[in-house]
Amino acid sequence: MTLPSEVVEAHDAVDVIRAKRDGRAVPEPALRWMVDAYTRGYVSDAQMSAFTMAVLLNGMDRGEIRVMTDAMIASGERMSFASLGKPTVDKHSTGGVGDKITLPLAPLVASFGVAVPQLSGRGLGHTGGTLDKLESIPGWRAALTNEEMFAQLQSVGAVICAAGSGLAPADKKLYALRDVTGTVEAIPLIASSIMSKKIAEGTDALVLDVKFGSGAFMTDIDRARELARTMVALGTDSGVRTTALLTDMNTPLGLAIGNANEVRESVDVLAGGGPADVVELTIALAREMLELAGRPDADVEAALADGRAMDTWRAMIRAQDGDPDAALPTPRESHTVVADRAGVLTRLEALPFGIAAWRLGAGRARAQDPVVHAAGVDLHAKPGDRVAAGQPLFTLVADDDKRFDRALEAVDGAWTIGDTAVAAGPLVRERITA
Ligand code: URA
Questions:
Q1: Residue 84 carries which DSSP code?
Q2: Is residue 175 in contact with ligand 1, taking CB distance under 6 Å?
């Protein structure tokens, strides 16, 4: 490989690794160089693995995290929506089980004349991907050019599409490396990864849904809070108005876990119905987004009740060649589990149900694998609900009944039926601002 001598000679990767290994802050020029030289292939995977492990063990200060984020932004293109003539606001969720909130949220917020450029990803492991869910809709297309995205933001207001490969390519390479080196969990690396893409995307404002609990990336609320504070500070320092909600992901969101079934549930919300927790979180995030976009008095509930949000959803799906009226894929096989006693469902753990949906085919183990759009889990009861003996608790759905045994293994012991209800904490636990 031929690289300019200033890249090769400017710094030494081993010095950068040693500094972090010994708990020292890495000076700005060396850190910028490390990210750039890794992206170009001069710093090796082995060296970057050692560095990310040192970050996981010893952390980074706020200045280093900002430099890391800037360096990843600088590795690719930076979009701008300034010429749209309307405010832009985006939402990012750290991911959870049954988290389909982007689907009703983007058209709901856009129905108030605000542009929502929602660059989304595919699922990997037990957390689903927004694009996988939307691809259940016949004809719907995730890949848009920047020009198509602009035109749709202008005409419809909401776009949910795949992030182009030009945004923060350094993050793409680094994230794949972290995935196989046990270094995904480092807060400075998560924060810089997420925020580099969001800042490069060029949104004016951003609301973060940072989840904690068994189905979340961060099981512990204190670590989730630290991640949220770090990201809010990064966004604010970069001129993106940013707030975060800390939300409970101990139990799946809504009743549907999968792809097509999550689209159905989202459409129910847009039609003014849907499960209470999905409606609550959609409304809470919409209010946050609209406040940041300068519309604090927008009547979000009215837009769900009177069909405005649904009209925007239909226009958004059509603009990406989807048919909002087409039948969604239905599963060939199903297996229902019933309550073995009467009582109150007191616990239904998110993570095992996410793993079950994944094993049923709703998720993928490798980035190149396809997903089965009709597969997943349909819950019939949620914690707090009273159940009778023999009453259906949940149904596994798949295209192949051979998948049921492994899915049932995943959820073994994952729910409890007790005698009395246990008070649950609020879904939205905290709001974090700069
Ligand atoms: N999502 C991202 O985009 N990056 C991370 O590091 C973790 C979750």
A1: G
A2: yes
Does the model's pTM come out above 0.85?
yes
Q: Which CB contacts under 8 angstroms, 24+ apart, belong to 145-149? A: 146/79, 149/117
Helix (H) or strand (E) holding 247: strand 241-248
Q: What is the pLDDT of residues 308-317, one digit of tens each?
A: 999 999 999 9
- Two tokens at 43? 């710093």
Helix axes 169-179, 62-74, angle to 10 degrees: 120
Residue 136 CB neighbour total at 10 angstroms: 22
| Farthest CA pair distance, the chain | 73
DSSP 8-state class, residue 415: E
**Is any ligand 1 atom within 6 A of the Cβ of residue 183?**
no
- Shortest-distance Cα residue to atom 1 of ligand 1: 194
Least confident of 119-123, 179-183, 198-202, 212-216: 119-123
CATH assignment, 333-418:
3.90.1170.30
The CATH architecture of the domain made up of 82-164+198-326 is 3-Layer(aba) Sandwich (3.40)
Could you tell me which CATH number the domain at 13-59 has?
Answer: 1.20.970.10
Which residue has its alpha carbon closest to ligand 1 atom 3?
194
Residue 369 burial by Cβ neighbours in a 10 Å radius (0-12, 13-18, 19+) = exposed
> Where in the sequence of the chain do the CATH 3.40.1030.10 domains occur?
82-164+198-326
